[in-house]
Amino acid sequence: MSIVILGIESSCDDTSAAILKDEVILSNIISSQKVHSEYGGVVPELASRTHQQNIIPVVDKAIKDAGIKPDDIDAIAFTRGPGLMGSLLVGTSFAKGFALARNLPLIEVNHLHAHVLAHFIKEDENDTEQPGFPFLCLLVSGGNSQIILVEEHLKMKILGQTIDDAAGEAFDKCAKIMGLPYPGGPLIDKYAQKGNPERFKFNKPGIKNYDYSFSGLKTSFLYFLRDEMKKDSSFIENNKYDLCASLQKTIVDILMDKLIKASKDTGITQIALAGGVSANSGLRNTIQNHKGWKTFIPKFSYTTDNAAMIAITGYYKYLNKEFTDQSVAPFARTEF
Asked: How far apart are CA 104 and CA 73, in angstroms?
């Protein structure tokens, strides 16, 4: 008998709901919030208020687009954390209310686990392009940069992670230094394709093991631009393509150096990419072109925050009978 999961994602500024039947996605609705662009970043209070406005129509559309009825749903999975507390409260409260009203099992999902398991979302029954176990997953987003050893769907171990800023933060903060609008990461990727990645050299951290650090890069980038702007006030505008290309190459090199080391040390050559920064063309191309690896990159719609990844994680937890109760509360920060 098939299992139908309603997934809810509200960890930051995207309100999303998805319907999954076994491992096949039936609908995945995302409502993004454009109001934050004028503030140069996500404003938590505005995010939570907008989630309150969006959650019901988004869930309603997900159910209708899936061609099912609310009575067909077997369980509801929701993002418990990490994320913005106000945003998480909206999704958690809705999920608890929906589950209570319909006497459905409630499944809490770790947002980071879900990014990894996005690789197992199927577009249809014949979709078999999924990594086998074990595999390494490079999870890169605005708030996280991690190398994860994935042994089973619900058995994962962090091998390395950032000790300060994440890769996505480095992209956005350096973009802000250059005067680019928020979010700056996609613009850096766009401009980098027109520039020379070897033009400028920026500092790379000497962190041991598989851990990352990006705060030093951000600082060196700031000081470099400050010094150059003293000589030429138009330096950024005149060199923005080369600056973006060189910055992107530096960040990709930092990520790749540790991933290559982890692959060599573990002997694992199945490599997956996950998280919002996995949309970066420089990172995608570099990983896909690395010799000796079999690489897996999910569709763009499953790399950013979305409820489909919450639903697929909920599906595996449902099979494992990992349910939670109505006393559950969201958390803003958590260990993996």
From this structure: 8
Whether residue 39 has pLDDT greater than 80? no
Residue with tokens 């687009």: 65
Taking only the tens place, the pLDDT of each residue in 199-232 is 999 989 888 899 999 999 999 999 999 999 999 9
pTM value is: 0.94
Q: Which two tokens mark 49?
A: 């208020």
Residues 6+ apart with CB under 8 A from 304: 14, 30, 276, 279
3-state secondary structure of 27: strand
Whole-angstrom Cα distance, residue 54 to residue 182?
A: 22
- 3-class SS letters over 292-328: CCEEECCCHHHCCCCHHHHHHHHHHHHHCCCCECCCC
DSSP letter for each residue of 40-68: TS--HHHHHHHHHHHHHHHHHHHHHHHT-
Domains of the chain: 4-121+302-319 (3.30.420.40), 135-297 (3.30.420.40)
